[in-house]
Amino acid sequence: MSPAPIDRVEVFTPENVKLEYQVESKITALPLTILNDANVRLVLNEPELDIPGVKQIHYRDMSAEQPDIDIYSYLEIAGIKYEIGKVGYGEPSVFPSVTERLRFSPFAGVLTQTDIQILTQYRFLGAKYDLVDYYVIENGAPIQIAEITGVVEYSDVDGDEISEVISTDYGARTVHITITKFDFENGCLRNSNIAELLGVDSVDYQEKLWFTRIIDTATNEMRDGYKYKLINGEFVPVDD
Q1: Which of 32, 106, 161, 190 could, after both became Cys, cross-link 21 (CB 3.0–4.6 A)?
Q2: Cα torsion for 103, 104, 109, 115, to the nearest 10°?
Q3: H or E segment and range at residue 198
């Protein structure tokens, strides 16, 4: 939900703002359901994975809302098929470019203080509607531990040599960015809504610069705010 317009008479002088996590949620442990083979109407392809012992299949599902368009997927581990569900959509002409993006993949960086291997599943479900699911393999079975909405990238924003997730949601007028930190030691995800943290209505992130915008309550129009750099866990105002 977008923040309500904020009444500002004068442009404030920005100060350094420490990155703080306003919301904390428990890391989930959701096992995948076993696939119903009867729903597999047409196998599309089997992408090559970098995960020993794990096979992935993309397919058309008999029960899908758009059975000729929707792309579904399942994993096969030790002969057991686990349903991932809908991961995207597209005509046969778009293969293999689309399904390459929809591969079940090991996370290439460092998301946690532990040695747990995190696996990711990207989902493209509509215009400006992306999801990334995060998994671990426990006792030979895939377990979903988190789901993050938005266009996702990764960066070590607080200088601790562990990447955080930067997810961007694009609205009709505003852009909202959330920074998520995986904290396995305490079994939780820590989230920071950057617009709320900086006291603005919209914030965008490009090439390590954070651009803020506010809604002028007199005209109901957006106007530019200050720019920031995030340096070792602190938002620092920068000049144009």
Answers
A1: 190
A2: -170
A3: helix 194-198
Q: Can you read off the two tokens belonging to residue 189?
A: 């995800």
Within 10 angstroms of residue 168's Cβ, the number of other Cβ atoms is 19
Q: What is the largest CA-CA distance in the chain?
A: 65
- Phi and psi dihedrals of 221, rounded to 5? -115, 155
Find out whether the peptide bond into 96 is cis, omega within 30 degrees of 0.
yes
Strands 234-238 and 221-231: antiparallel
Mean pLDDT for each 10-residue chunk of the chain (240 residues)? 47 78 90 94 88 93 89 96 92 65 85 83 80 93 94 87 91 90 90 94 89 87 91 87
The pLDDT assigned to 98 comes to 67
Residue 6 pLDDT: 46
